[in-house]
Amino acid sequence: MIREIHSLQETAQFAEELAQKIQNHTVTLCLDGDLGAGKTTFTKSLGRALGVKSVINSPTFTIMKNYTDGAGNPFTHIDAYRLEGAGQDLGFDEVFDEGISVVEWSQYIPDQLPADTIRIAITQGTGEDRTFDVTGTGVWAAVFAPETAQADAGKETVA
Question: Does the keyword Amino-acid biosynthesis apply (predicted)?
Fold first, then answer.
């Protein structure tokens, strides 16, 4: 599913739409894109849409920050940028087993990620223009397949 975004308001709207699909599920979102592409901005919008009351900011130096969404479920924000080349098991499997996890720079920890993920590649355009390319793996594959996204826009398909 490709989504063209032209403003911060549209980013927040897209995050709200995604939040409706994933709330109350255990899911890992993998956000990839160049520095300044909007990964943290999107994560902040998604957290707000899920009812996170705390201020969400980048965990670049702490690697991981934990929050609670509006339903009391874990919302975990991981920045894997500083983990490039880390070959050992970092214990993220426990984090990914409950709630919603958002991983920025997920390409740096591919062996740590669960099989069922939502991958969002963000490409930066001019100004606030962004392209969000959303794909799912495992149980999320059908939800974000191009033909499903067009035919079932807005419908919940994951039990």
Answer: no
